[in-house]
Amino acid sequence: MTRKYTFLAFLAALVMVLALAACGGGGETAAPEAEGEAVAEAPAEGTLAGDPEAGKSQFDMVCIACHGAGGVGVEGLGKPFTTSEFLLTVSDQELLDFIKTGRPISHPDNTTGVDMPPKGGNPALTDEQFTEFIALIRTLPE
Description:
By secondary structure, the chain is mainly α. It has six helices and no strands. The radius of gyration is 17 Å and the shape is globular.
């Protein structure tokens, strides 16, 4: 049993190191200036504007170790995103707040028996990066 936890700790540390190494600033997007270009509508209240494709790189760096490729979950580690009722009941802002806070083992809603660390264990990630990740998550439920 101890080897399992040692391996999991090593895996979590490796994911954190890779995520920190890959962190970087995002470039700003210029507003459309040409006539006829569509201007994106503001997201609905509680909805954050993010890029699912950029979110995939965030997911692959931070969350894949516990939530699995494609968000299908990893038994005993992280819940699946593909079938999550929780994801269907919270706004993007509430989900961002949840990710930033995490869920300790002691929380009554923790059913895995494993901590979800604040910010997925990577304090260097920004709200903007998590907004992109949330955009990806929203594409996953079946």
